[in-house]
Amino acid sequence: KAGVTQTPRYLIKTRGQQVTLSCSPISGHRSVSWYQQTPGQGLQFLFEYFSETQRNKGNFPGRFSGRQFSNSRSEMNVSTLELGDSALYLCASSSGYTGGSYGYTFGSGTRLTVV
Amino acid sequence: AQTVTQSQPEMSVQEAETVTLSCTYDTSESDYYLFWYKQPPSRQMILVIRQEAYKQQNATENRFSVNFQKAAKSFSLKISDSQLGDAAMYFCAYRSAVVTDKLIFGTGTRLQVFP
Lengths: 115, 115
Hints:
Chain A has no helices and eleven strands. Chain A is mostly beta strands. The termini of chain A are far apart. By secondary structure, chain B is an all-beta fold. Helix content of chain B is about 0%, strand content about 50%. Chain B is built from no helices and twelve strands. Classes of the chains: A mainly beta, B mainly beta. Chains A and B meet through strand 4, strand 5, strand 9 and strand 10 of A and strand 5, strand 6 and strand 11 of B.
């Protein structure tokens, strides 16, 4: 069974640009959630999607957005990039409903560097 | 709001010895799930063990076990017979029992294993 695939692995962007990150969950999983990991703030929840609907959202500015497609793949977008957006972005998948109660499968993340 | 606290930024252990990582949390909910995740340098978060709050019995997975004290809101991880491959960042995480995949993470403990 293929794991959670995040692309790209590394990304360098300039301040003011926008970026789109992709996450393909485990086959059959319908829930995808996103996290930002930085040395200063640790792991922070961005948002989660289940069956193409945003089910929960963290405390991030509107520059951070996401969506989920009918095949459960998810994308997150960050517009008008700031230096502070440099982070490892992780996504996690579960079957949804109560599947997350058994833990989540994480991808290897996308390392975004804003210069 | 729920919070998770890991008070040990770094821990070290000799190979084959036992080490305990601490985690405390704060919540007003009575039903929830707790997890320990391991993050090696490869960046991927790997589920180590999970605990359901309504179960009094402590979870065990091979060399990994937890000491779950619900009244004290404590959830420590014990690693027995430590191996070099156990070296990683360890994160404690909380998930509400309501339908959500949002995880709240502690700040992590870096575990070093010496031969």
